[in-house]
TrEMBL record:
<dbReference type="InterPro" id="IPR011605">
    <property type="entry name" value="NusB_fam"/>
</dbReference>
<dbReference type="InterPro" id="IPR006027">
    <property type="entry name" value="NusB_RsmB_TIM44"/>
</dbReference>
<comment type="similarity">
    <text>Belongs to the NusB family.</text>
</comment>
<keyword id="KW-0804">Transcription</keyword>
<comment type="function">
    <text>Involved in transcription antitermination. Required for transcription of ribosomal RNA (rRNA) genes. Binds specifically to the boxA antiterminator sequence of the ribosomal RNA (rrn) operons.</text>
</comment>
<keyword id="KW-0889">Transcription antitermination</keyword>
<feature type="domain" description="NusB/RsmB/TIM44">
    <location>
        <begin position="7"/>
        <end position="132"/>
    </location>
</feature>
<protein>
    <recommendedName>
        <fullName>Transcription antitermination protein NusB</fullName>
    </recommendedName>
</protein>
<keyword id="KW-0694">RNA-binding</keyword>
<dbReference type="InterPro" id="IPR035926">
    <property type="entry name" value="NusB-like_sf"/>
</dbReference>
<keyword id="KW-0805">Transcription regulation</keyword>
<dbReference type="Pfam" id="PF01029">
    <property type="entry name" value="NusB"/>
</dbReference>
Length: 134
């Protein structure tokens, strides 16, 4: 597996997590929709599935790890930023094979791609605090 396949899996997963957060549809339906309607060439499908299912099943644990490090109410975090930090926190917490620098860097890159202008700064600062606490 190439690193680029995981990067593509993260990009697709963050979009699916965002969709799941807003629609509140069954995560299996969201997964099916993304795998049938999105371009998946070069995507590590197994990793995409794990990220989406993992974030969905462990959202409360992930959010509890994030909340003490926020400078605002969790409800005030944009849905895009929530999806990104949830994905990165899942990797930092439950995927010990992923180096923390990779998880943080990927989160920053996702924020640059999908977030508002300064989202990457917010994501970087939050994940940095999370890693230092660990």
């Amino acid at each position: 597996m190439k690193p680029s396949e995981r990067r593509k899996a993260r990009r697709l997963a963050v979009q699916a997590i965002y969709s799941w957060q807003l629609s509140q549809n069954n995560v299996a339906d969201v997964e099916h929709e993304f795998l049938t309607e999105q371009k998946t060439d070069g995507v590590d499908i197994a990793y995409f599935r794990e990220l989406l299912a993992g974030v969905a099943s462990k959202t409360s644990q992930i959010d509890e790890r994030l909340k003490p490090h926020l400078d605002r109410d969790f409800e005030d975090v944009s849905p895009v930023e929530k999806a990104i930090v949830r994905l990165a926190t899942y990797e930092l917490t439950f995927r010990t094979d992923v180096p923390y620098k990779v998880a943080i860097n990927e989160g920053i890159e996702l924020a640059k791609a999908f977030g508002a202008d300064d989202s990457h700064k917010f994501v970087n600062g939050l994940l940095d605090k999370l890693v230092k606490q660990k």
